[in-house]
Specification:
The chain is mainly beta. The protein contains one helix and five strands. It has two domains: 28 residues, no CATH class; 71 residues, Copper binding periplasmic protein CusF (OB fold (Dihydrolipoamide Acetyltransferase, E2P), Beta Barrel), CATH 2.40.50.320. It is 11% helix and 38% strand. The two termini are 18 Å apart. Bound molecules: copper (II) ion. The site of copper (II) ion (CU) has 4 residues, from strand 3.
């Protein structure tokens, strides 16, 4: 993700680079929606919580670990299954680490 941000900065600084093909750019989330890789370890649909073994979360300055997150909408857990590889975006909302985007890794 740091590489992508750097590339984005370079493109902004040098508009001529827009002519260069940026294959990955359209497949990546916007920089303010940094996505983190994780594997689902546990799901609690009633409580709206999910346990993830996640990689480093750049926007939260968090190293890789396994931990519980709240999900913004309970519906986000409807198709989730333990063992799924996912990409997610989390933010601290009212003091709680909350997943705002959750999708299965393609
Ligand atoms: Cu964590």
């Amino acid at each position: 993700m740091k590489t992508l941000l750097l590339m984005t900065a370079l493109v902004i600084a040098h508009p001529a680079l827009h002519a260069e093909p940026l294959r990955a750019a359209s497949e990546e989330a916007a920089p303010d929606q940094a996505m983190t890789e994780a594997v689902i370890r546990k799901i609690d649909k009633d409580a709206g919580k999910i346990t993830l073994r996640h990689g480093a979360i750049s926007n939260l300055d968090m190293p890789p670990m396994t931990m519980v997150f709240r999900v913004q909408q309970a519906a986000m857990l409807e198709t989730a299954e333990v063992g799924d590889a996912v990409l997610f975006h989390a933010e601290r909302i009212n003091g709680l680490l909350t997943i705002t985007t959750l999708k299965k890794t393609p």
